[in-house]
Amino acid sequence: MPDGADRRLSRRKLLSLAGGAGAAVGIAAGFLSQNALSAAAAPAGEPLGATVPFHGDRQAGITTPAQDRLHMAAFDVTTEDRSALITLLRDWTAAAKAMTAGRTVGDTGAVGGPYDAPPDDSGEALGLAPGRLTLTFGFGPGLFDKDGKARFGLEGRRPDALVDLPHFPGDALEAARTGGDLVVQACADDPQVAVHAVRNLARIGFGKVRVRWSQLGFGRTSSTSRTQTTPRNLFGFKDGTNNLKAEDTDLLNEHVWVTAGSRPGEAWMTGGSYLIARRIRMHIEIWDRTSLREQEGLIGRTKGEGAPLSGGTEFTAPDFTIKGRDGQPLIPLDSHLRLAHPDHNDGVRMLRRGYNYTDGSDGLGHLDAGLFFIAFVKDPRTHYVPMQMAMAKQDVLALEYLKHTGSGLFAVPPGARPGGFIGEGLFT
Amino acid sequence: MPDGADRRLSRRKLLSLAGGAGAAVGIAAGFLSQNALSAAAAPAGEPLGATVPFHGDRQAGITTPAQDRLHMAAFDVTTEDRSALITLLRDWTAAAKAMTAGRTVGDTGAVGGPYDAPPDDSGEALGLAPGRLTLTFGFGPGLFDKDGKARFGLEGRRPDALVDLPHFPGDALEAARTGGDLVVQACADDPQVAVHAVRNLARIGFGKVRVRWSQLGFGRTSSTSRTQTTPRNLFGFKDGTNNLKAEDTDLLNEHVWVTAGSRPGEAWMTGGSYLIARRIRMHIEIWDRTSLREQEGLIGRTKGEGAPLSGGTEFTAPDFTIKGRDGQPLIPLDSHLRLAHPDHNDGVRMLRRGYNYTDGSDGLGHLDAGLFFIAFVKDPRTHYVPMQMAMAKQDVLALEYLKHTGSGLFAVPPGARPGGFIGEGLFT
Predict the structure, then answer these.
(1) What chain B residue is nearest to A38 in terms of C-alpha separation?
(2) Residue A379 sits in the same domain as residue A271
(3) Same domain membership, residue A325 and residue A362
């Protein structure tokens, strides 16, 4: 799979549609979709024809303004051949570069022939606009060692921060929704574009990887840029008001990006981050029978505006000291806002990028619905484990309304340089 | 839950946003979304602020130009009390009327108080535009009788056409994805709007219904109007090129709408239709390793244009007689196009309204992905069972690449009159 963009069939060229998509950046002006109804569905000011650059110092899909839809998949690597793994990462990089630019995978695309070979691209995104697709790759603990034995010659290369997450109180993790050697986060404003991307990466990996778990998210629950408004989770509350945002450069350096200074064996992670994924089932049926007063007390914010119960509007800083006429703090001591606030967690911050999900029925007469939590942090040992341990023990919300059913921790290397591949530093 | 629209909090009013949404029709001009990025994602010419009228001779969501996203849920009715069932249908009707108009459910909505009661609306659609939401309701066989005994005083009211579907060769139906006494099809251009609607209907039904199954579809696979272009399924092919469309009034009367003339006990279905739902797993990993030539032969159309292999463009009528140099028909005898064509099925037509789905992993290293098939027909005995039986026996596509894992058949009554409720004719 050579990496020559000019040799590829673009989805646009293929369909003889006009369009001047920039090489990697910007908006395909005049984009005309085959599937006009879908493809024209565009975020305000960001047409579905918009693309996000693939190359960069960081991988895309972290500080990129959160797209509306998610398909994330984790894979088990079934080969033990180092060169096969490197080939896979090279092929995935080439395919990701093409798809995020709105092109089909491979030299022949979905319909270019030869007729007696399988197409290079599965085709269901033909005519769809790029939808700001980003593909973000990460490496799980199992890529480095399994059953105490190093894999792929990666002795000493597993970062210390890529821990095996501890068991948290209340965890009800399902093996089929947990772990994975590789992860791909596909985010786009059109879900079919995200699904197409994951499906084609799985196709390219045939014989080397197996899908371990796969998760769709239908609605973003975080903003990652000040250009976005705050979305709502399935409790009906605004979520992530105080999330770290792309504009918070200093805070991102402090809390999200891995900086140099770690031991030499993990220098390949400089400029990267750690992705924590948690599938959090919400007991929405119980929540829906809870009074508005109790809901607001559990969250610590008003439901409509999302203002802290201490007063103000959504972005007013909470004041944990103000007390009501009953002498109790207006923001209850056991509210989620208080327990999750940096003031009560050694000042740590996360960049959250989660999505609402609904996966059919739970077999007990309820929707299986909740939050697919995604966060990026500099070091999960300081920036996730302590807070999650505290929440799992004290947060009434977590204790009574949430159940963690899936989990994953992945080292997300820095961006690929042009001509290179994702995670290249790990293999040099 | 009174049915006075003027007494309800609208999502717009609630957020003090401008907007002149028509009573039930048209486009909310100047709609300003709280969640601007999501809400502004609008089909071409059909802003996400657009609403579809709830009342009418027919239910909406059948000939409505197919929205991009689906959430369908089937429910078991757990009460045996006729008046409780009628109350549920009245409450669902009122809620459906509010939500399809972009309003919250109930008098107090999501945040209107009283503070010591649960809110009337769960709130996650606050600030989202209506997204052309439609809610379409149907009644399964189990609403009429169970274990040979009539329910709810409905002796003699089960329509003859509401059969128990036969076992088709190759069926691998899972009980937890099959059947149901009631069904709700929620279609919208914003998936969070569709999920919110189903979730609130489930909430309203607490104590009377249980969710039996629930299915999200991320991409439409049918056009139901000539204003739409043909979308692609997960085989990468255009799907439903020859689907019945809203503009085909005579054909709809012939093939989709139930007309008078049935026995008196089923007169309540006049103006209604029958909804067939089939969850069809696609073996996409095998498909993806099939040559382009074989893919096109199995479908009977070209992959890019979607033209019949006998020549022309997408909407050219197939010519099953033209032979190639090898003396074989250009459209193979066992192609899906040929086997599914009305010419080979007694002229019957369906209005298809299916969606692509992806539901995680199959536990065997593959994506669990496929087509959630939905069709509306006048009578499944003539318009579905014979064709499906033939396809299940002869269609190479069905035999080698498809597996039916879920199924449902539902009687879809006509539209509710203002002041009335869905299915009212069944109870009078």
Answers:
(1) B43
(2) yes
(3) yes
Check CB contact under 8 Å for B284 and A229: no
Domain extent for A208: 60-133+182-217
Number of domains in chain A: 2
Max CA distance (Å), chain A: 79
Q: Give the tens place of pLDDT for each residue, A316-361.
A: 999 999 999 999 999 999 999 999 999 999 999 999 999 999 999 9
Q: What's the CATH number where A129 sits?
A: 3.30.70
Query: Does residue A156 sit in the same domain as residue A295?
Result: yes
Give tens-digit pLDDT for A50-93.
999 999 999 999 999 999 999 999 999 999 999 999 999 999 99
Is there a single domain that holds both residue A108 and residue A228? Answer: no
**Selected residue of B9, B208, B288 to mutate for chain A interface (largest A Cβ count, 10 A):** B288
- Contact call for B37 and A65, based on CB within 8 A: yes
Global pTM value:
0.91
Let me know whether A70 and A186 are in one domain: yes
Whether A192 and B359 lie within 8 Å, measured CB to CB: no
Q: Do A71 and B176 touch (CB under 8 A)?
A: no
Residues A332 and A204 in one domain: no
Verify that A202 and A309 share a domain, yes or no.
no
- Check A210 against B365: CB less than 8 A apart: yes
Write out chain B residues lying below 8 Å of A220, CB-based: 38
Same domain, A201 and A164: no
Residue B9 C-alpha, separation from nearest chain A C-alpha, in angstroms: 12
Q: Give the range among A26-30, A68-72, A151-155 with minimum mean pLDDT.
A: A26-30
The alpha-carbon gap from B424 to the nearest alpha carbon of chain A, in Å, equals 26
